[in-house]
């Protein structure tokens, strides 16, 4: 019984079969990577998880509740956070304010508006935000304008925003895409730390084998919209089907 | 020293605003009555009232545009609705401005709720066009079908036969004037000293007190978690949604609040002069509040007030400058040069004020997107840097958030 | 039946103007990604090109006719246009009479040049800025342009008549077998519609059949890719802006006899044209044209007495109402493409 259960999901775009009968189970407190060559349907799959696309058939269940067609803010409140390919942060705000917002959202829900309270009087939220920035090693940049951060720092900040809500499941969409080697390693270290220190499930969509093999506990290889194999990293390495998918024509 | 839930810096800030507002009749009357510069005085009740009222309008608009980034091109509709509601209150109930203003705020708030609920289903330019369409619709309707309520082109006015059920029956043949529990709005006291005439009008001080309250509320909103969320909407709606927040109720709340501010301004306009016409709702009027907010500095606390004051002041001054005045100024020049200079300036003054305003506005958008507030900060920054260089300090750059 | 046909015809001239302005707006938006609030001002400037041209043609010199006297008994001053002096009264008079159509030739270079200057001088710097900034700066420009025109031409509308030959009306009904006088349609409006159709056709043909047009269409579909192909897209976009300005200007020139030009006509049309663009679908050229005619005709129907008696005031708000309904039910407009101005 996994925290996230995907059963028989298919999705077509016109004549193109983007996903074909996908079955994936992500177990609690594991890091589960989904890899595959370009066009394997990874992004479509992710979009089906977060309600952005509705699959033609099949079901996506998170802790027994369906995620199909649910609005993003509701998905978040069920305990799912998402890290984007290009970091989605509040670029006009300071680093500290960026972390405050998810904390307020977590405490107050989507609708309660506190127009007559003052942010600086919210001692508990401020303490949590400071702790979070210490955890991701960004406390010295708390007053920085977040648009001015480096790509790696933006990723770090985005991660901090997601983690501050203590999600049950963290979805990561190519977290190291477009990063320099140093930033990539930095991000891997951060993710490892999160994996080891927190009770969290992570589902990573990734292209970069180096990232996947340093992090994942379980790997699903996708090709042409359907999962080929699912196994531990050690078994995946050198699996003939994987070789074929990566080298054979795609 | 803190009070009203503000921290020390904001308290000081609010006190400065209160002081400036209270002493406006002095501050805007710096030149002696018979001096050549008397035309730059602006301490007339009528003009000062407009500063305060349009300041309120712009503060409210800024809560929507400055914080959430939703550019409404139809806010004048709420101003107009506020004015109509207030005049109806004067006609039916009483000349006391309190019920009129309350009704103006409520009606415009409800109207904003309706329009906002529909318009906020779209973002970006679509939102702007939707608000524009609604406002133009209201304007056209006020001119045509709704004539029984709006009195069409003539505009809504008081008449002697109005019921005014709460007011004592008057026997006089003149129209009553608006009042606050007996204090008449057009009452004023004059004080003449050093050749300067200072006018203290009841109407201005009523507007000023309300404007200060409006400013205080906006200050609290800016500092609140709600205000933080509104700024978050402006910068990244996707992240906002994936943070578990539904952007629409937040944006709608901001829209309704700013609509109520506009209604308050409209109600005050009617309270100072009990008239309401459809032209107050026209899209050019909506454009004006956009200009004020941008010119002053959108998203800052003081910016919209500065912008409103700036536009209303120069509108008044520029429209008064004619060729005779110009000749008076440049009389010391050789004739040819004088005439050439005046020909050059002529299109920009008098009736040409809108040309100046348009150019100024373009310059601000191109070079100074933060408006007058940014200009002030840049100048202050320049001085600070020079000082720092003098002291050859390590020049710790203090980035103060926008006031 | 004839009543319906009459309303359709009545809607055509306004619809033509909407369609032409909306076409230019869409061209600019589709290629440059700029929301141009000054586009109405271009239409207005076009109309004033006609006014200016007419004024230039009627520039006169004064001669004193000793044989006649005015009512004070002084020798009569006779004004005669230079044009008549040069070409003789017959030809000269005809040239003056045909000022508006001739102004087309005059306005094309003016408008194209105007478009170039505007794009190079201002719009270019706003490609990378947010749409709100583009709206604001072009809004400022629109104010400036209209105030300049007001300064030179005054606030009152300036009558700019069509040539004598087109001043009458066509009894359209008779041609179709209805009663005489059932459908009376002024010649000039008919000409305006034909002219607009011709311009629209020319623009589409240009985009469809020339290499330049192909690049522009590709640019509208995917700007980055076209840039990657090594085509100097910027230069073409400047030309595009000139073309859009010329289309708006021509729409204005020919509109002058229908409605005497005044300085705020641009703003009046702009608001409606934006609504038209949004209804047609941001970025869709056929959508802009279709919506322009559709809304022009709808407006004309709404102003029928029969309809106004059921829904009073409907003629005032019909366009906005349609826009609101369309935006809420079909956010991309009638023929809009996916992904334009969406977040």
Keyword list:
heterotrimer; A: 250 residues; alpha/beta; Rossmann fold; 2 domains; 6-stranded mixed β-sheet; 4-stranded antiparallel β-sheet; 9 helices; globular; C: 343 residues; mainly alpha; ABC transporter involved in vitamin B12 uptake, BtuC; two-stranded antiparallel sheet; 14 helices; 4 strands
Structure in a nutshell:
By secondary structure, chain A is an alpha/beta fold. In chain A, 36% of the residues lie in helices and 24% in strands. Chain B has 403 residues and is mainly alpha-helical.
Please explain how this structure is put together.
The complex is a heterotrimer of chains A (250), B (403) and C (343). Chain A has 250 residues and is an alpha/beta fold. Chain A is 36% helix and 24% strand. Chain B is mostly helical. Chain B has one domain: ABC transporter involved in vitamin B12 uptake, BtuC. Chain C has a two-stranded antiparallel sheet with strand order 1-2. In chain C, strands 3-4 form a two-stranded antiparallel sheet. At the B-C interface, α6, α12 and α16 of B face α5, α11 and α14 of C.
Element layout with pairings:
The complex is a heterotrimer of chains A (250), B (403) and C (343).
Chain A: E1 4-13, E2 16-26, E3 31-35, H1 42-49, E4 57-62, E5 65-66, H2 72-77, E6 80-83, H3 95-108, H4 123-135, H5 151-163, E7 169-173, H6 181-197, E8 201-206, H7 209-215, E9 218-223, E10 226-231, H8 233-236, H9 240-247
Parallel strand pairs in A: 3-8, 3-9, 6-7, 7-8
Antiparallel strand pairs in A: 1-2, 1-4, 4-5, 9-10
Chain B: H1 8-22, H2 24-27, H3 45-68, H4 76-92, H5 97-119, H6 124-143, H7 147-150, E1 156-157, E2 179-180, E3 183-184, E4 188-193, E5 196-201, H8 202-223, H9 225-235, H10 237-242, H11 247-272, E6 275-276, H12 283-296, H13 303-320, H14 323-329, H15 335-345, H16 353-367, H17 371-390
Antiparallel strand pairs in B: 1-6, 2-3, 4-5
Helix pairs in contact in B: 1-8, 3-8, 3-9, 3-11, 3-12, 3-13, 4-5, 4-11, 5-6, 5-11, 8-9, 9-11, 12-13
Chain C: H1 2-32, H2 39-57, E1 60-69, E2 75-81, H3 82-97, H4 99-121, H5 131-153, E3 169-171, H6 172-175, E4 184-186, H7 187-209, H8 211-221, H9 223-228, H10 233-255, H11 265-280, H12 285-302, H13 305-310, H14 314-329
Antiparallel strand pairs in C: 1-2, 3-4
Helix pairs in contact in C: 1-7, 1-8, 1-10, 1-11, 1-12, 2-4, 2-5, 2-10, 2-11, 4-10, 7-8, 7-10, 8-10, 11-12, 11-14, 12-14
């Amino acid at each position: 019984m996994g925290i996230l259960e995907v059963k028989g999901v298919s999705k077509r775009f016109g004549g193109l079969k983007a996903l074909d009968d996908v079955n994936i189970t992500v177990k609690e407190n594991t890091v589960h990577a989904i890899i595959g060559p370009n066009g394997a349907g990874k992004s479509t799959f992710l979009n089906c998880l977060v309600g952005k696309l509705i699959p033609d058939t099949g079901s996506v269940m998170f802790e027994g509740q369906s995620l199909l067609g649910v609005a993003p803010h509701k998905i978040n409140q069920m305990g799912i956070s998402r890290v984007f390919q290009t970091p989605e942060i509040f670029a006009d705000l300071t680093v500290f304010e960026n972390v405050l917002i998810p904390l307020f959202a977590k405490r107050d829900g989507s609708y309660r508006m506190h127009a007559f309270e003052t942010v600086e009087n919210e001692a508990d939220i401020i303490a949590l935000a400071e702790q979070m920035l210490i955890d991701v090693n960004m406390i010295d940049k708390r007053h920085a304008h977040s648009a001015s951060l480096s790509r790696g720092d933006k990723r770090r900040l985005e991660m901090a925003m997601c983690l501050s809500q203590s999600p049950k499941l963290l979805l990561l969409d190519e977290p190291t895409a477009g990063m320099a080697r140093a930033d990539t390693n930095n991000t891997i270290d951060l993710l490892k730390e999160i994996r080891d220190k927190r009770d969290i499930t992570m589902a990573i969509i990734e292209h970069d084998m180096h990232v996947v093999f340093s992090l994942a506990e379980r790997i699903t290889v996708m090709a042409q919209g359907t999962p080929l194999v699912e196994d531990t990293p050690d078994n995946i390495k050198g699996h003939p089907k994987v070789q074929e998918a990566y080298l054979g024509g795609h | 020293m803190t009070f009203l839930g503000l921290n020390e810096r904001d308290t000081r800030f609010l006190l400065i605003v209160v002081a400036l507002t209270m002493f406006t009749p002095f501050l805007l009357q710096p030149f002696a009555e018979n001096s050549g510069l008397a035309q730059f005085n602006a301490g007339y009740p009528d003009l000062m009232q407009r500063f305060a009222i349009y300041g309120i309008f712009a503060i409210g608009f800024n809560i929507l545009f400055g914080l959430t980034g939703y550019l409404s091109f139809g806010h004048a509709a709420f101003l107009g609705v506020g004015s109509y509601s207030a005049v109806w209150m004067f006609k039916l109930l009483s000349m006391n401005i309190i019920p009129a203003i309350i009704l103006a705020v409520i009606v415009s708030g409800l109207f904003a709720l309706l329009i906002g609920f529909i318009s906020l289903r779209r973002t970006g330019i679509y939102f702007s066009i939707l608000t524009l369409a609604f406002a133009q619709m209201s304007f056209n309707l006020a001119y045509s079908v709704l004539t029984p309520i709006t009195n069409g082109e003539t505009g809504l006015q008081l008449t002697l036969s109005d019921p005014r059920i709460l007011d004592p029956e008057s026997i006089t043949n003149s129209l009553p004037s608006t009042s606050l529990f007996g204090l008449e709005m057009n009452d004023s006291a004059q004080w003449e000293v050093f050749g300067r005439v200072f006018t203290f009008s009841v109407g201005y001080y009523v507007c000023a007190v309300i404007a200060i309250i409006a400013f205080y509320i906006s200050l609290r909103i800016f500092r609140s978690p709600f205000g933080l969320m509104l700024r978050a909407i402006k910068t990244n709606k996707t992240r906002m949604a994936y943070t578990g927040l539904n952007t629409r109720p937040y944006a709608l709340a901001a829209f309704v609040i700013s609509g109520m501010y506009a209604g308050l301004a409209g109600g005050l306009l009617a309270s100072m002069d009990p008239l309401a016409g459809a032209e107050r709702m026209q899209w050019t009027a909506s454009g004006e509040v956009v200009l004020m907010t941008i010119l002053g500095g959108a998203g800052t606390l003081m910016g919209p007030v500065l912008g409103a004051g700036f536009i209303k002041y120069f509108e008044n001054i520029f429209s008064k400058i004619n060729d005779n005045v110009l000749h008076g100024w440049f009389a010391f020049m050789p004739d040819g040069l004088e005439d050439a200079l005046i020909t050059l300036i002529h299109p920009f003054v008098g009736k040409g004020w809108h040309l100046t305003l348009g150019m100024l506005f373009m310059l601000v958008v191109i070079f100074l997107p933060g408006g007058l507030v940014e200009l002030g900060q840049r100048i202050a920054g320049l001085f600070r840097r020079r000082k720092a260089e003098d002291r050859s300090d390590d020049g710790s750059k203090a980035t103060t958030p926008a006031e | 039946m004839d009543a319906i046909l009459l309303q359709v015809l009545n809607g055509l001239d306004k619809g033509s103007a909407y369609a032409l302005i909306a076409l230019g707006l869409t061209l600019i938006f589709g290629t440059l990604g700029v929301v141009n609030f000054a586009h109405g001002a271009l239409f207005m400037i076009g109309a004033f090109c006609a006014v200016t041209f007419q004024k230039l043609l009627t520039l006169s010199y004064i001669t004193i006719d000793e044989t006649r006297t005015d009512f004070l008994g002084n020798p009569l001053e006779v004004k005669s246009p230079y044009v008549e002096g040069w070409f003789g009264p017959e030809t000269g008079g005809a040239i003056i009479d045909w000022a508006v159509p001739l102004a087309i030739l005059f306005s094309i270079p003016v408008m194209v040049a105007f478009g170039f200057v505007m794009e190079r001088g201002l719009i270019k710097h706003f490609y990378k800025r947010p749409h709100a900034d583009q709206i604001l700066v072009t809004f400022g420009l629109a104010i400036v342009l209209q105030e300049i025109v007001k300064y030179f031409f005054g606030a009152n509308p300036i009558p700019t008549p069509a040539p004598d030959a087109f001043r009458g009306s066509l009894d359209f009904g008779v041609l179709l077998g209805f009663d005489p006088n059932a459908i009376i349609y002024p010649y000039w409006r008919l000409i305006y519609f034909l002219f607009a159709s011709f311009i629209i056709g020319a623009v589409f043909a240009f985009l469809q059949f020339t290499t330049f047009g192909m690049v522009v269409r590709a640019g509208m579909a995917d700007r980055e890719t076209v840039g990657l192909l090594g085509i100097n897209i910027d230069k073409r976009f400047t030309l595009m802006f000139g073309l859009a300005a010329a289309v708006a200007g021509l729409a204005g020139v020919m509109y002058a006899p229908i409605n005497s030009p005044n300085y705020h006509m641009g703003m009046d049309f702009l608001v409606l044209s934006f609504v038209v663009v949004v209804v047609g679908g941001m970025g869709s050229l056929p959508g802009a044209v279709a919506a322009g005619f559709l809304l022009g005709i709808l407006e004309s129907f709404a102003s029928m007495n029969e309809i106004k008696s059921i829904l009073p005031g409907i003629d005032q708000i019909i366009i906005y109402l349609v826009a609101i309904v369309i935006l809420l039910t079909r956010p991309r407009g009638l023929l809009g493409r996916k992904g334009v101005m969406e977040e």
